[in-house]
Amino acid sequence: xxxxxxxxIAMAFLAATAEAKTxxxxxxxxxxxxxxxxxxxxAFGLADARSPAxxxxxxxxxxxxxxxxxxxxxxxxxxxxxxxxxxxxxxxxDRGMALFPSYxxxxxxxxxxxxxxxxxxxxxxxxxxxxxxxxxxxxxxPVPDGAAGLSxxxxxxxxxxxxxxxxxxxxxxxxxxxxx
Length: 180
Fold this sequence. Notes:
By secondary structure, the chain is mainly beta.
């Protein structure tokens, strides 16, 4: 009988000490946060955006919380100023502006800015699962049921004149196994 107790204890120890997985993505300044073709009820902008940056990983399990951080600079117009992942602080693009992706975001006490990093979880067909969300320079986001990927892009209405990129780091915690 002792032969079986040791592997179970070892397995529980290994699960408790598993490390998180870290993934880095580049988000182009012209990237939309989700594909509007897959989400016609979440349409925005002038339809000139590039495809979103997309993380698809089998470790995206419902209930885990991703830690997302971003660095880098983007511009909103050719020759314009450069802004970090929090976007242009003097330009609020919130739910009152239907041309921006942030129109569909419940910011919960925050305001959305032009060129801010935003995200959405999507299913295998690219349809948004749950609600899109603000990320800025850092956010913790729980993975909802039905999510197959994390879609990332910029909060803007006209993308073709944007330049630059953001480097986004996503920490995916390992699933934990509890042995009773």
